[in-house]
Amino acid sequence: MKGFRAKPQIDAGHYRKNLNLITFTNCSYQIRDCLSLAGEEASRVMIIGVGNGVEAAVLRHLGMEVVTMDIDPHLNPEVIASAADLPFKDKSFDVVIASHVLEHLPFACFDGCLREIARIGRHALIYLPFACLVPELRLSIRPLFSKSLRLCIPLFWKDYRFDGFHYWEIGVRKYSLARIRREIEKKFTIREAYHNQDWRYSYNFVLTAIS
Question: Most buried of 7, 21, 97, 175, CB within 10 angstroms?
Answer without folding.
Answer: 97
